[in-house]
């Protein structure tokens, strides 16, 4: 690039590469200005640059506007400021009622994708159009990085966080009203069952976990395969959530004789996602629990001795760990990792299996909801509508009886009509 200086270097005349026209640039009153001279000749370009620079200096001296573009002002309070205050309050106020993982997930979602888009915006300017632009940008970025669009649940989770920040602003009186953030393409959802194991697949799974105990493909993992086998059986016969099963202690589980059925079952004092509650198991959960209790006792005796082990047993967790790696490997080897709709099966699928099997056997949906610490609505939406045994064919295939034709014979005489006399001739 060729450059010439004027006014002791306060004005530059330059021409880039193969360009024919000269450009001029100068700094006046703290602002950088550039302009095209429109001239190919250096002398005429120099004369134009001198007049242009002196005109700018004259405008500054007389107080005339320089024609600067209006720069957008940073709002007094941005979405990032609101998000910081929201997270600070959540850490304090929700510490006793929500899991630390929940608060950590809020921070991750904000920092990863929400704040880069909304951080500098004024919360009062966020509306449905802004949200839709965010969803488009989020989808395009993920398609570029991973070659696929974000899941519907991912977008809805982001919407929840954004709505919580705006509600915080509304509650503080800094936002006059809560904007409508609903999106036109996320309101309807196809009904689909959650990933579960059919009775045949569930039998195949627990037989595979039992086989791993006998073969034990990895040295030193026999106790882990034993725990995994009992985990599958206990989850499939109780409907516990994975976190509820991992939080359960030996003292939380009692073996009782049920008066209504006459069967031996487990009564579990559950602590987990929804707080505390009780669960009554199927009879198939009793033997896995006895094995687990004996295994925990043997481990404590080996570590602390028989006397101290008996004292520690009650407060020992039922499951010391959940070997997710071994569980997923068994699912892959048995061809059970995905269901027919392509949904990934996890430990949660065992809970879904329990609920679906109970509904298939004709259990009362309200009792199932209470026993699983969930709502009837959730069961109706994700399980009951897909269980064929809940459809009563006798109530569906109803046919209206056909009207019977009158028997052949004389027509009935209308009331008040005189009887016709028979002729004798």
Automatic annotation (TrEMBL):
Say yes or no: keyword DNA-binding present.
yes
Question: According to the UniProt entry, which residue ranges have a biased composition of type Basic residues?
Answer: 412-425
- Region spans: Disordered: 394-425
Membrane-crossing residues?
Answer: none
Could you tell me the keywords of this UniProt record? DNA integration, DNA recombination, DNA-binding
The residue ranges of the Core-binding (CB) domain are 77-170
Q: Which InterPro entries match?
A: CB, DNA_brk_join_enz, Integrase-like_cat_sf, Integrase_catalytic, Integrase_recombinase_N
Tell me the PROSITE patterns matching this sequence.
CB (PS51900), TYR_RECOMBINASE (PS51898)
Residues folding into a coiled coil are none
For the keyword Coiled coil, the answer is: no
- The UniProt record lists the Tyr recombinase domain at 192-396
Report what the protein is called.
Integrase
């Amino acid at each position: 690039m060729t450059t010439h200086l004027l006014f002791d270097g306060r004005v530059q005349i330059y021409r880039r590469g193969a360009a024919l026209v000269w450009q001029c640039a100068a700094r006046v009153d703290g602002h950088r200005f550039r302009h095209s001279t429109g001239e190919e000749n250096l002398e005429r370009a120099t004369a134009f640059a001198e007049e242009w620079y002196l005109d700018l200096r004259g405008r500054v001296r007389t107080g005339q506007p320089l024609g600067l573009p209006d720069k957008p002002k940073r709002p007094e309070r941005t979405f990032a400021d609101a998000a910081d205050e929201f997270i600070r309050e959540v850490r304090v106020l929700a510490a006793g009622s929500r899991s630390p993982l929940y608060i950590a997930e809020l921070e991750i979602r904000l920092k990863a994708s929400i704040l880069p888009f909304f951080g500098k915006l004024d919360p009062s300017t966020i509306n449905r159009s802004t949200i839709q632009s965010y969803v488009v940008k989020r989808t395009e970025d993920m398609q570029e990085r991973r070659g696929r669009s974000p899941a519907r649940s991912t977008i809805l989770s982001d919407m929840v966080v954004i709505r919580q920040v705006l509600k915080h602003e509304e509650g503080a009186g800094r936002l006059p009203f809560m904007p409508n953030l609903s999106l036109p393409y996320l309101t309807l959802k196809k009904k689909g069952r959650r990933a579960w194991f059919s009775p045949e697949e569930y039998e195949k799974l627990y037989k595979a976990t039992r086989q791993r105990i006998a073969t034990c493909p990895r040295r030193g993992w026999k106790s882990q395969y034993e725990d995994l086998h009992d985990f599958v059986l206990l989850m499939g016969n109780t409907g516990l959530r994975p976190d509820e099963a991992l939080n359960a202690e030996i003292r939380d589980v009692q073996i009782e004789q049920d008066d209504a059925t006459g069967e031996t079952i487990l009564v579990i004092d559950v602590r987990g996602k929804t707080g505390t509650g009780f669960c009554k198991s199927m009879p198939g959960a009793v033997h896995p629990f006895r094995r687990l209790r004996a295994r925990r006792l043997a481990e404590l005796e080996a570590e602390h001795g028989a006397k101290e082990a008996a004292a520690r047993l009650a407060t020992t967790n039922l499951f010391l760990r959940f070997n997710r790696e071994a569980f997923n490997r068994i699912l892959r080897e048995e061809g059970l990792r995905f269901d027919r709709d392509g949904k990934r099966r996890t430990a949660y699928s065992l809970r879904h299996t329990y609920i679906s099997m109970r509904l298939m056997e004709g259990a009362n949906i309200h009792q199932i909801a209470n026993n699983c610490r969930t709502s009837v609505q959730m069961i109706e939406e994700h399980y009951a509508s897909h269980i064929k045994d809940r459809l009563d064919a006798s109530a569906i295939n109803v046919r209206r009886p056909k009207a019977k034709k009158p028997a052949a014979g004389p027509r009935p005489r209308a009331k008040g009509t005189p009887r016709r006399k028979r002729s004798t001739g």
